Amino acid sequence: MSIVLVILIVVVVLALVGLVAVQAPRRAAAKRARRERLASEVSGHRQEASAHASRAAELEPQAAEHREEAARHLAEAEQLEAQAQRSKRFAARHEDHADERADQLEQL
Fold it and tell me: Who's near 39: CB < 8 A, 6+ residues apart?
């Protein structure tokens, strides 16, 4: 091997080692910055999850109460509808009786 080739190989190897030595701290700093950013995001998401879970815990009893009230309203509405139907039948029957009596009255 020639001395020039050996020197060239040594220079290339030293350049690569120098490049790696320069890049290592940059990569470590970038990795550290990314870890910090991700840790901050994790913390933020955990806080949001906690807030939403707390809100859900507040809303669930209210929803159950409204559901129960809605069931009571539905039962009451069904009773009122039944009463309305009964009243319509009574009204129709009394209207028929009134027509019959009116006919009788005309015949007198």
Answer: none
- pTM (predicted TM-score): 0.51
Alpha carbons 34 and 32: distance in angstroms, whole number: 5
Q: Is 108 helix (H, G, I), strand (E, B) or coil?
A: coil
Distance in angstroms (rounded) separating the CA atoms of residues 18 and 10: 12
What's the CA gap between 96 and 102, in Å, rounded? Answer: 10
pLDDT in tens, 30-74: 999 999 999 999 999 999 999 999 999 999 999 999 999 999 999
DSSP state of 2: -
